[in-house]
What does this fold into?
Amino acid sequence: MDRVFHLKELETVAEACWSAAQGARVIAFHGSLGAGKTTLIAALCRQQGVLSSVSSPTFALANEYLLPNGRGVIYHLDFYRLQHASEAFEAGLEDLLHSESLCFVEWPERVPAILPAGTVHVWLEGVSDAERRIIVRIPTENG
It folds into this structure.
């Protein structure tokens, strides 16, 4: 998926992301500060029925959002403050990435080696104050 969208279309774009990422368990979000990573993650969580507030876990490193009807949790990780993969291991973030739960990861380029095979990558970039470009790449068997 590669498209430019207006911020008013966020819910529609989130639906398209779910369709593109069919069954993915880890989705990595790339983009500069203010590109809309957390905003898109909030929309994706809403569509799964998450009722709690979704915010960037920049300082906590991980947030947990409960899914309704006992369907489990979504982990929202933020690697912005990490300098080395060892910090992710020490914080237990690798365990979350290899759990059975859905994981959204912001700033995955900080420690790419801990992302599991099959991670879907989403790039967001600002086109204007009200428009963003989104690119979703699904991993293939050949890389």
In short: The CA atoms of residues 6 and 131 lie 4 Å apart. The radius of gyration is 14 Å. The first strand starts at residue 2 and ends at 6.
